[in-house]
Amino acid sequence: MSGKPGSLDTPVEMLTRAAAKKELKWLAQEIARHDRLYHQQDAPEISDADYDALRRRNEALETRFPDEKRKDSPSETVGAEVASGFRKVRHAVPMLSLGNAFDEEDVRDFVARVRRFLSLKEDDALAFVAEPKIDGLSISLRYERGVFVQGATRGDGSEGEEVTENLRTIAEIPERLEGVPEVFEVRGEVYMTKSDFLALNERQEQAGRKLFANPRNAAAGSLRQLDASITRARPLRCFLYAAGELSEPVAETHWAYLERLRELGFRTNPLAERCDGAEAILEVYRRIEKQRAELDYDIDGVVYKVDRYDLQQRLGFVSRAPRWAIAHKFAAERAETVLERIGIQVGRTGALTPVAHLTPVTVGGVVVQRATLHNQDEIRRKDVREGDRVVVQRAGDVIPQVVEVVDDGHHAERPEYRFPEHCPCPLRTEVVRPEGEAVSRCSGELACPHQQLRRLTHFVSRDAFDIEGLGDKQVQAFFERGLIATPPDIFDLQANDGKQGEPPLAEWEGWGERSAGNLFQAIEARRRIPLERFVYALGIRQIGQATARLLARSYGSLDEWHARMSEAARERAEKPEEKKPELVGEAYAELCNLSGIGVSMADDIVGFFAEAHNLEVLEALEQRLTVEDAAAPSGGDSPLAGKTVVFTGSLETMSRGEAKARAESLGAKVTGSVSKNTDFVVVGADAGSKAKKAQELGVETLSEEDWAKLLERLR
Ligand code: IVH
Fold this sequence. Notes:
Layout: H1 17-40, H2 48-64, E1 88-90, E2 100-101, H3 104-117, E3 127-134, E4 137-144, E5 147-153, E6 159-161, H4 164-168, E7 183-191, H5 194-206, H6 215-223, H7 228-232, E8 237-246, H8 254-264, E9 273-276, H9 278-291, E10 299-306, H10 309-315, E11 317-318, E12 321-322, E13 325-329, E14 333-346, E15 351-363, E16 366-372, H11 376-382, E17 389-394, E18 401-406, E19 431-432, E20 440-442, H12 449-459, H13 472-480, H14 493-496, H15 513-525, E21 528-530, H16 531-537, H17 545-555, H18 558-574, H19 581-584, H20 586-593, H21 598-609, H22 612-624, E22 626-628, E23 644-648, H23 656-665, E24 669-671, E25 680-683, H24 689-697, E26 700-703, H25 704-714
Parallel strand pairs: 2-13, 21-22, 23-24, 23-25, 25-26
Antiparallel strand pairs: 1-6, 3-9, 3-10, 4-5, 4-7, 7-8, 10-13, 11-12, 14-15, 14-17, 15-16, 15-20, 17-18, 19-20
This protein binds 2-(butylsulfanyl)adenosine (IVH).
């Protein structure tokens, strides 16, 4: 670039103001140019180290001459990478994930579960389609009146990023379709072939650019380019395998659907097969596994789907995964390396997890340096010692694990590993391990800085508050400077900015007016939050996303939930040892009876409400936020919405599982025991004490026939 200042090699301390000013101007333009080359054109001209040197020079100049800092200063643009540039789109039909099967037993269980749910008789056939699970990126293509109008990534399943123009560059995706319904959405996987990946990396290497770790990353990096002409230059391909929104059905079975896709000009995977029963699909699995290495694209398992759409519909979903499909994963990939050291990680609830620090090793194409050792018992069982040679394995997205020790002849000479008695946190609190539990915990609770920080990062994580620009790194920085200790502090950041003995955020290294402003704005935007995210964000032990959603839907509003949980906590405090929920109290029993909750989770929830410091945090959040009521369970105005139903006895026309799922999909809450809060009891054959109890309490009962009629009416 012309105009390069001659003073660049002069130490900053010796520069005149005028020379510094000139350099700052040049640096602003030069760094912006390299940013464009790197992020948008994927064609950097300088090495990362040289680029960093330019940025460091810029910062040093700005520190020495703060008045000369420019409006377009590069220090304001940190983090402004590719990710931010895409429009968000809401998926009309959510993009779901799949449950996993890891061995043949899991697959047989899956088939048995499906058969049971559908109440199939022994000789009833049940067809599946088995097809490779492509290791790429899932995408959704939307056609309106036969024209491709929108393409999106999966994102979090409900909301993805709009990448229409980038997808248009993929030759395999037709621009127009003949004879499809007005709205026609089709879903599949974008991927890069192994050979194209190798060739791309070779080009990257020759150009001195960063290499991609595997074809999947290369595909992701190529699709998520703001400049579609870069995507065009990358050889992406696409297999289609599922329907999204459709204004009219196009097939009655998945198999017929795949055929229809092919007729329309889409690519579907040639290895897909339709077959009947567990043994037949396992046969397909073995065949596909044998071919795996020879395929020119990565696959990480085989997906089994119930073929008939009417059965899929009946089976429905649990949480975010269909009951009618499962992914059978290939065995994890393994490698040997040396375990250099065992460290301890403190989790959000104080759980201490031993972590193996390894000599880096490539496992299935990814470099692994750390692996979990789970807990104290696992270390003892495997007798893992520092310095040992070990086998590590990686399966899908899960954290790598240490499988076993390989005897290198010196294992016995190494000292046995001793689990620490004190938390690695500065408090050095005692480690406690409740009887019967595998997990050791730091007893410092909220006073332990590790736990505090983990709670904060959980609070802002993707499925919780998901505040843009506030990732783990930023939270840690605020935490270390004492600006946020608990979640409500996040919402006071702006009001307290520059007032707590720290300079205003805009003056921090790596920040500027614009990025600070953006962060504050993102925080403001999250002052309104759906109840289920709020409940999940609290980080109560055992309460994942699905349970948080269940709680939100069951209690409806934060006020109601808070009040009922406090009540349940009071009840529990009086009878801490009682095993029967009904004998503890009404609010506690109601909680335990929500499907899938039970005593152990209920105790963790009421345990949370029994702690004064948690209530303080909760109340402080309540003052700062508007928590949106949860929609009544879907089913809307169905007469079952919000009703509590109990099934008892054996049902003949459908399995208990299907009955429960149907009731829930119509908005009912299904519980296991009859109380005065039960709205009605569906009584099957040979019903016992529950039917009697319903009569005693005057709760309405329905016969199975009544129930079937009710469902029929609501269809
Ligand atoms: S079906 C409702 N079929 O796997 C079911 N998914 O773990 C929708 N995937 O997000 C998915 N190959 O990205 C299906 N043949 C295949 C697949 C496949 C890869 C991915 C997909 C999904 C993930 C779930």
